[in-house]
Structures are given as structure tokens and as C-alpha cells.
Amino acid sequence: MGKITFQFNSYLNYKRKGINVHHLHSPFAFDLVRKVVNDRRRYPDYQRIDLLRKQLRKDLTEVEVTDLGAGIGGQDNAPSHKSVAALYKNNSIRPKYGELLYRLVKYLQPGSILELGTSLGISTAYMAIANPGASVITVEGCEGIAQKAKENFARLGIYNVRQEIGNFDRLLETIIDRVPKLDMAFIDGNHRKDPTIRYFESCLLKSHNDTVLIFDDIHWSKEMNEAWNAICSHKSVTLTLDLFQFGLVFFKKELSKQDFIISY
Ligand SMILES: C[S@@+](CC[C@H](N)C(=O)[O-])C[C@H]1O[C@@H](n2cnc3c(N)ncnc32)[C@H](O)[C@@H]1O
Question: Is 172 in the pocket of ligand 1 (CB under 6 A)?
């Protein structure tokens, strides 16, 4: 089955099975969906990022790009050139999901956040702005793109982000080693099965009862679907929320094991 057909079938399946807040019996999941997922208020911070989005959409500056996500056997692809506008269009999170990241951070108040896949820094910005007291580490493999993200953080007046540049596979162990704990992680790069499961396992080392892990593009391919299913069935996971693009993973020991597909 081709990727597009797979995604289409996955979406139909999601639409058929997705439930709304009134079907949730777990008080934690009920509150999270009612107060965060379904929160339709327009926060003024969204406008700051929307303004940057407008500028990036028109920015034809060329950036040297190395796509580590598509590398085979750990080898990176040869560099090419892309405009900032093209990178923005292809890589940056859509407002609907960026704004959800913002609300998750506002609600859960994570103090330490890790992101794999900075790109131009749009998703990073939502998380960093939502809690300026949090320390955000974001990892990007492509130097030219990371430099653009740095400029974007400066434009937005964001000072609580530390950028790491290099392959996730090379850097993650050291980063995880150094952080005392991980309150939130957003995994948005190298959308393949084995690496995704490896990143999950690395994050587990510093996860605790209140950690949330967020995986992007969980139904993007058969491999990502399999990775998501493996994560859901891991013994330390007690609650998962499938929002089609995002998969949210919780470890709260006080909850009995449940996996929900939520209409979003
Ligand atoms: C989908 S984009 C991230 C988008 C960003 N989170 C946002 O929404 O604004 C994924 C990024 O991950 C980077 N990436 C993919 N695989 C990687 C790897 N193995 N190591 C380091 N960076 C990687 C790519 O260069 C790309 O910029």
C-alpha cells in the first residue's frame, strides 16, 4: 500500500473511532481534553508567532540543507539548497498543532522540555513562549536550518531555548545523561520506526510520573503507526491520547491503563 493510501485509510479509521470529551471517564484525561485540547480561545502569544510565519512564508533566502531523517544506515544525504519559504511550507508545524503545544505547556507547566527536530523553530517557539521559566533544549541536525531557527528565536525575544546541532542518534544519549529530569519531550524528526522507538526509550530514562511525551506524525506511515503501537503497549505507559497527528504519552501510576482516540 502506498503512503498516501495508508494515510487516507488511517484518517478514515481515526474519524470513525475518535471520541469526544464526554466519553472520557478518566478525570485526568477529561480535564486535559476539555481544558487544553478543546480550548478555542485565541491567546495573544499566537499572534507573535503568526507574524513570524508571515515573514518566513515570503523569505526566499537559500539555506544549505542536509536531511538526516531520510539517511540510510546512519549515513546522511548529500546537502541541497532550499529557501526558507520552502522549509517553512514543508517542515513547520501547522498553527492548530503549534497552538496545542502552547496550551499543553501552559497547562502542564513542564520545567524541562526536550525537542527533537527544531527546523525553523516554530514548534520550539510555541513551547518556549508558553512557559518562559522552562528550559527548552532543541536538537537539529542541519546546521544551516538551526542558524535560521536561532535568528527566529532572537526575533521573538525568546531566551529560554538551548540549541544543540547534530544527529539525534549522536547527541541524545549525552543530552539525556545531563538533564536531571524530563518533564516534556516533543519528538518531531526522523519519522521511522526503530529510531522513534529508540528516542522513546532514551526519554524514558529521565521520565517520571508527570512527564508527557508527544510524538508527531504517528500515522504518517506504516512504520510510524507500528512505532506508535509499540509505544502505547510499553509497560510503563498508562495513558495515551491519539489526536491523529500527535500522540500524547503519560506515565501516571495512579491511572489504570487506557488508550484513547480523541477527535481533534
Ligand atoms: C518536521 S521538521 C521539525 C519541525 C519543527 N518541529 C516545527 O514544527 O517547527 C524535522 C527536522 O528534524 C531534523 N532531523 C530529522 N532527522 C534528524 C536526525 N536524525 N538528527 C537530527 N535532526 C534530524 C530535520 O533536519 C528537520 O529540520
Answer: no
> What CATH number should be reported for the domain holding residue 27?
3.40.50.150
Q: Is the pLDDT of residue 84 over 80?
A: yes
C-alpha 25 to ligand 1 mean position (Å)? 36
Q: Is residue 62 part of a domain?
A: no
Residue-wise pLDDT tens digits, 211-242: 999 999 999 999 999 999 999 999 999 999 99
Residue 240 has, within 13 A of its CA and on its CB side, a CA count of 19
Secondary structure (3-state) at 135: strand
Domain that holds residue 134: 3-46+94-261
How many domains does the chain divide into? 1
> Is 60 exceeded by the pLDDT of residue 19?
yes
Using the mean position of ligand 1's atoms as its centre, give its distance from the Cα of residue 134 in Å: 21
Which residue's alpha carbon is at the smallest distance from atom 2 of ligand 1? 91
**How far, in Å, are 69, 106, 122 from residue 94 at the CA level?**
20, 18, 9
Distance CA 134, CA 251 (A): 21
Instruction: Give 262's DSSP letter.
Output: B
Examine residue 71 and state whether it is found in any structural domain, yes or no.
no
Task: Judge whether 106 lies within some domain.
Answer: yes
74: pLDDT confidence band, cut at 50, 70 and 90?
Answer: very low
65 domain residue, yes or no: no
Q: What phi and psi, each to the nearest 5 degrees, are found at residue 116?
A: -105, 115
Q: Is 188 in the pocket of ligand 1 (CB under 6 A)?
A: yes
pTM above 0.85, yes or no: yes
What angle separates helix 143-156 from helix 44-57, to the nearest 10 degrees? 140
For residue 55, give the nearest of 151, 188, 158 by alpha carbon.
Answer: 151
